């Protein structure tokens, strides 16, 4: 019985590592040779740490000891009126004694950190530099994978499709077509010498009035570098005919709060773009003898753009359901629907809430209002901080009573 994983990013690597831990052999294919770059904001949330812990209890501490990462203690939100709302991931944190709840690490390093774990496992047959150019389903239901010159690479009883946002398989077989209302366009560049970064490496999200519903981020990195980028719903990019590259350049040159901070900064390498398939719509994640993982399954958080941890969550459940299917010798769509249920049981509530928060971007005044209130109200600032850890608190953002209490100053 062959379990084959297409794509060795966080989704595919996590699936392979869970399978290996459970004693299953698998084939892991990627067209790149690692370490490889991936266009991303490079922010690793607390959920990434908890997924690492599920792979191996020792991994979060191992990541924290890597020189190629920075621990991050929170988020600085900049409201459209320019007001800063500092939200620590943990209220009253102490960087000297607490473990950081988030990290920032270039993907060339973080993905390779996972691949180093993969390389240690004899159960995983990892083949880099292997481009899967085509796939076909055999009459017995197995998937046959072909290289660019049509030679057979492998056949799989069950195929775990984790080959990212541009997955041909997800589009053609899984039916995940690009829907501009559920897709974000993103750009990022690396800089050195950006000034005014937070001493505890807070990541910065800027909601600039003239650039809404898009946002700009500045995420500090080791060696005095920073990941700087912009994201905007593809529907808005098309409707407003936004030229993202030009806008990014212009904002960094002219925005009153940013131009000074970039005056002596140096851009390292090109500005690179990539798509973010958002999980704001529930889509099928499986079919006959296959499962879709991570970006190939459109699972990115629509508000924060976070997709690494969601790819890892889906990788963990995909390993579980692939093993179940092998044990039951059942690769039917009906059986594999259990995978969809498992992934959405874990992620759907958050995705739904983030969709609601994404809609907040259409109401800059509400954003300003919350930022103003929180600046003068430590309890509110703490509530917002706790929202990162507590879903029930985040649910309050959907309730009119939350805003009423704010209005009344409670
Ligand atoms: C601009 C931008 C900023 C982002 N910022 C953040 C952030 O700060 N934090 C966060 O959590 N998420 C962020 N994301 C989302 C995050 O990058 C993705 O959700 C995450 O990479 C998904 O992981 P994955 O394993 O599904 O796919 P990927 O990481 O894309 O991995 C897919 C793998 O498949 C391989 N592959 C593709 N096609 C083939 C083929 N035909 N044959 C063989 N191999 C193939 C590729 O080489 C690649 O290694 C951002 C995304 C963008 C575009």
TrEMBL record:
InterPro entries: FAD-bd, FAD/NAD-bd_sf, Geranylgeranyl_Rdtase_fam, Geranylgeranyl_reductase. GO terms for molecular function: FAD binding; oxidoreductase activity, acting on the CH-CH group of donors, NAD or NADP as acceptor. Residues 2-176 form the FAD-binding domain. Pfam families: FAD_binding_3. Transmembrane segments: none annotated. Gene3D superfamilies: FAD/NAD(P)-binding domain. PANTHER family: CONDITIONED MEDIUM FACTOR RECEPTOR 1, GERANYLGERANYL DIPHOSPHATE REDUCTASE. NCBIfam families: GG-red-SF. This is Geranylgeranyl reductase family. It comes from Hymenobacter actinosclerus. The lineage of its organism: Bacteria, Pseudomonadati, Bacteroidota, Cytophagia, Cytophagales.
